[in-house]
Amino acid sequence: MGGGRGLPSLERRAPGERVAEHPERVVRMADGPLGAYVHIPFCAAICPFCPYNKVVPRAGQPERYGAALLTEARRYVDAGSAGSTGFTSLYVGGGTPTLVPDLLRDVVGALPVAGERAIEVLPTHATPERLDDLRDMGFTAVSIGVQSFSDKVLRHLRRPHDARAAEAALENAVGRFDLVDADLILDVEYDTAYAGLFLRDLERCLDLGVDQVSTYPLMRFGYTPFGAARPRRRTEHEVLAEATRLAAKRGYERRSVWTFNRLQSPSYTSITRHRFLGMGAGASSFLGQDFLVNHFGVETYIAAVDEGRLPLARRLHLGAAGGLAYDAFWQAYSGHLCVPESGGAAALLLRAAASLMTVGGLVAPATADGCHALLPRGFDAYHDLERWVTYHLIEPLWSEMLEEHRREGGRAGWVAPVSARRHRLWRGVASLTERPV
Questions:
Q1: Which fold has domain 22-262?
Q2: Among 337, 403, 413, 437, which residue's CB has the most CB atoms within a 10 Å radius?
Q3: Spatial separation of the C-alpha atoms in residues 266 and 282, rounded to whole Å
Q4: Confidence band, pLDDT 50/70/90 cuts, at residue 412
């Protein structure tokens, strides 16, 4: 994958100069203010359905990782990535970020942030004392991985908590932060066996007063023990439509394809930041026309930073047209599609596509500012499109990156990269992807 051509610089490089040693070059690729994403890959136990970059840490590894992460963060900040006012937002994901509170405190303290600060929290870690610590660190939002209030479902997912811990976590969090999000997994195959569990889980979240519920469909990545399976699209559409009706009765609205928010509450997601810079093993960055991915292997990541390099593993140059398409894709997730007035041929194509979607009943006619709102059929279409993108592009990329754990002898036995889907589209995209030198 890639040909070792390296990251093309925005200016002439001196002989022998390596782009990956210069965070300033990465920062100059950004065409606007940046949010920050920080990845903590450590988990005490592995949930086999989860496809994200994660490992059970070796002895002493979190301390060495924390030092490398702090170095990477400081190099980017010194290069001007936070601008004059700070990063527009901060999202800390994993893994289990709250597994290593000292590491978390050091890194968060090194990142100036002007906007919201959000973090993923394991339910058993959401005690009043730990939540107060997160609030004292400056976090304004928490996303709690409830997944279900059914012990049967939690055992099915092999989650390290039970239903009571999930409820207690939300009870402890509500009122402590500007936003409390509860993650629920929609798995209609399992919901058929135990009819109505997902909708009852949603009702329970609303009863507990959370600000937002994120209802992600279970993604059966081929490289995980859950393996590949064909989604039941119509059933998922029906369940989400019923969830929309149920939420509306309780004073919540469908704010994006998979989230429901209390009216007038804030909203948050890790995936729709306009521009963001990723730090940590497995983190990615989107800078407007360039998509970058850090090394997934923890030891590989640490070694790169220790050698004075940025831990970049992949770079895909999208260009102006690709960047516009990327923006449009994630705008649509948030329920709106806004077509820019300028942007050349790519903007004209997007405008034509929006017109076709209007005729097809996927989006409403444009408002005065050129924005289209997704209609129910549009939400269903995007739900299916997001699955398609995940399986055709994200799964093969992550499976190749997860090979780093095997090569370095890491503790990631849950992953079987050879079983991942690799469609023809991915082979084409992979040929355009470069390995920074």
A1: pyruvate-formate lyase- activating enzyme (3.80.30)
A2: 337
A3: 28
A4: low
